[in-house]
Amino acid sequence: MARAIWSGSVSFGLVSIPVELYSATEDHTVHFNQFQRGTSDRIRYKRVNERTGREVPYDKIVKGHEVDNGEYVIVEPEELDDIAPGRSRTLDIEAFVDLDEIDPVFFQKTYWLGPAKPEFSRPYLLLAQAMKKTNRAGIAMFVMRGKQYLTALKEDNGILAVHTLFFADEIRKPEDVLDVTPEGRAPRGKELDMAVSLVESMADDWRPKDYRDTYTERVNKLIKDKQKGREIVVEAEPPEATGVVDLMEALQRSVEASKKKRSGTKKKAG
User: Which structural domain, as residue segments, surrounds residue 13?
Assistant: First the structure.
């Protein structure tokens, strides 16, 4: 069984529910160690004093924030602990908002929230069902591992899900980060009709189980092939950019190909 990574209580109005927090996702990334090429020597990192060249133990390290060119303010770990907000371990719902109003760009990571004990199931389910019926999410702040989080609680098949959110000042505007922004008049006419036709011809239901991390699979295969001395198969190059002149033809051919693919899929299913 997974272990809770945080425990406390959800509070809304005068109701308080003891709960435990669990990660809803897991990382399948293949991790590598570093070696010097041509040897079996591992590359390791050390915490070294840049002036003396000597390694420094953890208990001798403090944090420093640069406030001016070359000038730092030194902060002790205990000082950060002393000012940590919300040290009461409470996930206090401040408001319930329409779930559809939260832009997906704000969502960061998802956790499952469960009742701490079976006897707390009734108020837990009551909160979950109330949010489901109203299509609302509970907005709350809480502290975990020395950091304050903005969160949205929502109902998910009878379970409470906690989504950590980015703060508003952490969201970048597209115009502030894109080197090239789309310009010119909005597309219309036959090209737009054909693009809409292509989108509709490729419309499907969202089935997350149909998708998998093929790159990680290839990395694992690469490792096994190298271990057994097999030849490495190189992946195909990505397609070239579609020229503006060829756009209409590319759209037409794409629609036809999509329709043929769907027709073939239906015949196999039948």
Answer: 6-27+84-170
